[in-house]
Design goal:
Elements (H helix, E strand, L loop, with lengths): L6 E2 L5 E5 L6 E11 L3 H14 L5 E8 L7 E7 L5 E7 L8 E7 L3 E2 L3
Antiparallel strand pairs: 1-3, 2-3, 3-7, 3-8, 4-5, 5-6, 6-7
């Protein structure tokens, strides 16, 4: 959906226990980043993602800045079928760090099979 090429961090989804109502479950979190390309390309990728999400079953629930001093653009979305959540931020490097696109996907809490 991003439709630009850049370097990405190593894959690294992980699972964790969840369910504080007496049920045992797991949820999965997958953070990754795209970097190594200029802000124009990162901005294009961020815009492509925002434009593509609704057509892939995602409802954007926040589209604005992340509340930081740098006011980085941020999207929060929920997949309407799986209830998975997505956070995407375009860190433009205004603080002296290299610019990057940061994405994290979260699953819902799934009950473990017995």
């Amino acid at each position: 959906m991003i439709k630009v090429k850049g370097k990405v961090t190593e894959p690294g989804a992980y699972a964790s226990d969840c369910g504080d109502d007496g049920t045992k479950g797991i949820w999965v979190r997958h953070p990754w980043s795209m970097y190594g390309i200029d802000n124009n390309q990162l901005g294009e990728g961020f815009a492509n993602l925002k434009r593509s999400l609704p057509g892939e079953g995602w409802k954007i629930v926040k589209d604005g800045d992340d509340g930081s001093r740098n006011k980085n653009p941020e999207i929060l979305a929920v997949h309407e079928e799986t209830r998975s959540q997505l956070e995407a931020r375009w860190l433009r490097g205004l603080d002296g760090n290299p610019p990057l696109l940061e994405v994290t996907l979260y699953s819902q809490c799934f009950k473990k099979a017995d």
